[in-house]
Write a structure and sequence with these properties.
The complex is a heterotrimer of chains A (169), B (124) and C (106).
Chain A (H helix, E strand, L loop, with lengths): L1 H21 L3 H21 L3 H25 L12 H24 L15 H11 L1 H22 L10
Chain B lengths: L11 H24 L28 H18 L1 H6 L1 H29 L6
Chain C lengths: L9 H21 L3 H25 L4 H31 L13
Helix pairs in contact in C: 1-2, 2-3
The chains are: A mainly alpha (169), B mainly alpha (124), C mainly alpha (106).
Chain lengths: 169, 124, 106
C-alpha cells in the first residue's frame, strides 16, 4: 500500500520537476513547481513527518512560490524571454545532467538495502520535533534569527526605491 | 493524546478529500464544456469590462510597493512557523524556552524596527 | 491501521532525491531566465530536504528534520534577497536573461 503511494508520488514529482524545466512560460514553471512541492509534502506524510509536511506546504507552496509568481507577474514575463534557443547549450545541459543522474543512481543502487524503520516512530510530531529544536539545536535556532534579520534588512535595502525629494539635505 | 500517536494512515481522509475536490472540479468543468451548446461569437467572447472596451494586457507591471510587502511576508511567515513547535512545548520547557523565544523575537523585532524606520511599509 | 506502514527501502529515497537533484542541475544549466534558475535551486534544496527527512526517520533521530526546518528558513532568506536583486537588475537592464547579465558592471 505505501509502496504504491510512494511510486505514484515519485512519478508525479519527477514528471512535474521535468515540466518545470521544460515548460516555456515562467508562470507554468511556477505552477508545476507548486505541484511538485505538494507531492514532496506527500512524501513527508508517508515518512510520518506530518509537521514537516504542513510546514513545507505553508512555507514553500504558500509563501515562496507566491513570491516567485509575484515576481514573474511584476516583471511581466508572460511572454517568452528566450527567443533564440541555443540548442547546443540545451543538449549539453541535458547530457551533463543525465550523466550525473546515471552516476548517482548507479552508485545508490549498489548501496545495501536497508528498509526504513516503519513509520510508527513518532519523531515527526510537533512535540518531539520542538523538543529537539529548542533544546539540542538552540544555538542554530538563535543564529537563524540573525539570518532572517539580515535577509530583511538586505531585501529592504535593495528593493526599496529611495524617494529623493524627502532625503534630508 | 492523539497528537503523540499518528501514522500516515490517519491522513487517508485528507487524500480522499483532495481526490474528491479535484475530481468534482475536473468533472464539472469537463461535462459543462462537453454538454453545453457552443455558440461562440465575437461579442460573446469579448472581455466584459463594464461596457467599456478593454484596452491593455491584463499583466501590467504593477507597483514595486507590493513586492516589498510580499518579501517581508515570506520572512515573517518563516518566523511564525518556528513558533508552532515552541507553543506546543511551552509548558515543558518553562522559562528557558520562553527566554529563548524572546531572544529570537527580539532579534527579528530589530528588523521590524528597521523596516518601520525605513518606511518600507508606508504607502505614500 | 498498519496498511500504510512504511516499509520502503532507503535506496528508493536516495534514487528519487538523486533524480530530483539532477533535474535541478539540468535546469540551472539549461535555462537562461534567472527566475527559473532560482526555482531550480529550490528544487535541488527540496531533494536534499527529502533525503534528510528520510534518513531522520530511518535513524529515529529528530536532528535531520530540524535541519530541514533550517534549510527552509535559509531558502526563504535566499529567495527574498535573490528576488530583490533580480527586480533591481530588471529595473536597470530590463531583462533577467543571464546571457545579458554576464558582466558585473554596465
Amino acid at each position: 500500500m505505501s509502496q504504491i503511494a510512494f511510486y505514484i508520488l515519485s512519478f508525479l514529482s519527477v514528471v512535474s520537476a521535468l515540466l518545470v524545466i521544460f515548460s516555456k512560460k515562467p508562470v507554468h514553471s511556477v505552477l508545476y513547481l507548486v505541484f511538485c512541492f505538494f507531492t514532496i509534502a506527500g512524501h513527508y506524510v508517508l515518512l510520518n513527518a506530518q509537521f514537516l509536511a504542513a510546514v513545507h506546504i505553508i512555507v514553500y507552496a504558500g509563501a515562496i512560490m507566491v513570491l516567485f509568481l509575484f515576481v514573474v507577474m511584476l516583471l511581466n514575463l508572460n511572454a517568452d524571454i528566450e527567443p533564440h534557443k541555443d540548442n547546443v547549450l540545451k543538449v549539453s545541459a541535458v547530457v551533463a545532467g543525465g550523466c550525473l543522474m546515471l552516476i548517482m543512481t548507479s552508485v545508490m543502487k549498489t548501496a545495501d538495502t536497508m528498509p526504513i524503520i516503519d513509520s510508527t516512530n513518532q519523531i515527526g510530531v510537533v512535540k518531539n520535533l520542538g523538543l529537539a529544536l529548542y533544546q539540542t539545536y538552540m544555538l542554530p535556532f538563535e543564529l537563524l534569527s540573525v539570518l532572517l534579520l539580515s535577509a530583511m534588512v538586505g531585501s529592504v535595502l535593495i528593493a526599496k526605491k529611495e524617494d529623493i525629494e524627502n532625503l534630508p539635505q | 493524546m492523539i497528537l503523540l500517536n499518528s501514522t500516515p494512515a490517519d491522513y487517508l481522509p485528507i487524500v480522499m478529500m483532495f481526490v474528491v475536490a479535484m475530481g468534482f472540479v475536473v468533472t464539472t468543468i469537463f461535462f459543462t464544456h462537453k454538454l453545453g451548446p457552443k455558440r461562440d461569437s465575437k461579442i460573446k467572447l469579448d472581455v466584459f469590462e463594464c461596457g467599456i472596451e478593454s484596452v491593455d494586457n491584463a499583466r501590467l507591471p504593477f507597483n514595486i510597493k507590493y513586492f516589498l510587502v510580499a518579501i517581508l511576508f515570506v520572512l515573517f511567515d518563516v518566523e511564525v512557523i518556528f513558533m508552532y513547535p515552541w507553543a506546543v512545548n511551552f509548558k515543558d520547557m518553562g522559562w528557558f524556552g520562553f527566554v529563548e523565544m524572546l531572544v529570537f523575537l527580539g532579534t527579528l523585532l530589530v528588523g521590524f524596527y528597521y523596516i518601520i524606520k525605513k518606511g518600507a511599509l508606508k504607502w505614500q | 491501521m498498519n496498511t500504510l506502514a512504511n516499509n520502503i527501502p532507503i535506496n528508493y529515497y536516495l534514487i528519487l532525491s538523486g533524480i530530483l537533484f539532477c533535474i535541478g542541475v539540468m535546469g540551472v544549466l539549461m535555462r537562461r531566465n534567472a527566475i527559473i534558475i532560482l526555482m531550480c535551486i529550490e528544487l535541488m534544496l527540496n531533494a536534499v530536504n527529502l533525503l534528510l527527512a528520510a534518513f531522520s526517520v530511518m535513524h529515529n533521530d529528530a536532528g535531520g528534520q530540524v535541519m530541514v526546518f533550517f534549510i527552509m528558513a535559509v531558502a526563504a532568506a535566499e529567495v527574498a534577497v535573490g528576488l530583490s536583486i533580480l527586480v533591481l537588475i530588471y529595473r536597470n537592464v530590463k531583462s533577467v536573461d543571464i546571457n545579458i547579465l554576464n558582466r558585473l558592471k554596465w
